[in-house]
Specification:
- Helices cover 14% and strands 53% of the residues.
- It contains 2 helices and 7 strands, in the order αββββββαβ.
Length: 152
Amino acid sequence: MLKLSPAVLCACLLGGCVTAPSVNVRGDATIDQRSDMASAGTVAVRVVNPNPRSIRLVEYDYTVTMPGRSAWHGRHDGGMVLSPGFDRVAELPIVLPANIQPGTRIHVGGGLYYLDTSTFAQTLADWGYRPTAGFSGSAVVQEAAATGPPTP
């Protein structure tokens, strides 16, 4: 394996690797379900691809914390290929305490696993190499807007 490492390093230096995407927590977390046990909703993150070629967003791995409460750990499928220079907003699922109040500030931090769409990058992924773009930020909890049938 030691002989393979310089080869992998050289391939990366020759253009086999891409720049990490930018991932930012947008600042809004929406609660859309409540029960006696927990509240569930989503937190928005914006992902930007700064590369001259597409990247595949593989998986988000993140933790939600708030003062005085235990942390909640989440994983969510990346589910898309992001074209060069494009950005997308992803809604990551979150679970919070049942009595969470609107206006509460939460902290979200973790990583986004991504891959270059090249054959070389796929080979590296098959060998266990999964580049990660870290992210961290806070969001304010709000209730989802009430939706229902239109008023006649």
